[in-house]
Amino acid sequence: GQNIDQPTEMTATEGAIVQINCTYQTSGFNGLFWYQQHAGEAPTFLSYNVLDGLEEKGRFSSFLSRSKGYSYLLLKELQMKDSASYLCAVFYNQGGKLIFGQGTELSVKP
Amino acid sequence: DVKVTQSSRYLVKRTGEKVFLECVQDMDHENMFWYRQDPGLGLRLIYFSYDVKMKEKGDIPEGYSVSREKKERFSLILESASTNQTSMYLCASTEGRGETQYFGPGTRLLVL
């Protein structure tokens, strides 16, 4: 299988930093995406990693280690509007499909 | 900006009805996808298409069919709706394989 594992839910405080982890099976790996989805809305693209290392984009950063089958999304200076579900998705060569994790529900509290 | 639109935001149908969900993208994308999203199960791929008149089964195609007669339009068909098809349906498109997926706003379908 091509299981994508991420925590179901996390809670953090406004202004803090939170790290959302994602692990995946490495065979056939061809890129990893992070999406943000607010309740009742469609997912929107946050980041894409295909090479090892950290990609920074404002308050959000995404890290990838291909050998370990591991990624994380780092959110800094948390704001209330960051409360959402964060989806990790991996593109595999076999079948040419994007496989989504179940999503991590992040609650940001004052 | 890529725009992906879906024909309805909310839909209520009765068991046994034939249901059509329409998706249109305006960026000349080759690839289009239909997912359903359910609590605790995440996004699951129903069908996808890499070209006009081409379709491939995703992970959960049973009970669904699709049609792609034009590049910009990808339709999902529930031949005979059942209550277990109550879900949020999301359409997406990409320019190339493995590239960023752009999602429509979703259709929340309730089958009674």
Could you tell me the mean pLDDT of chain B?
94
Low-confidence stretches of chain B: none
Fraction in helix of chain B: under 10%
Note the beta-strand portion of chain B: over 45%
Total beta strand runs of chain B? 11
Number of helices of chain A: 0
> Element order, helices and strands of chain B?
EEEEEEEEEEE
Rg measurement of chain B, Å = 13 Å
Number of helices of chain B: 0
Q: Give the oligomer, counting copies of the same chain as homo and different chains as hetero.
A: heterodimer
Description:
The complex is a heterodimer of chains A (110) and B (112). Chain A is mainly beta and 110 residues long. Chain A is built from no helices and 11 strands. In chain A, strands 2, 4, 5, 9, 10 and 11 form a 6-stranded mixed β-sheet that branches. Chain A has a 5-stranded antiparallel β-sheet with strand order 1-3-8-7-6, with no helix packed on it. In chain A, 34% of the residues are buried. The mean pLDDT of chain A is 94. Chain B has 112 residues and is an all-beta fold. In chain B, the strands form 2 sheets. In chain B, strands 2, 4, 5, 6, 9, 10 and 11 form a 7-stranded mixed β-sheet that branches. Chain B has a 4-stranded antiparallel β-sheet with strand order 1-3-8-7, with no helix packed on it. The mean pLDDT of chain B is 94.
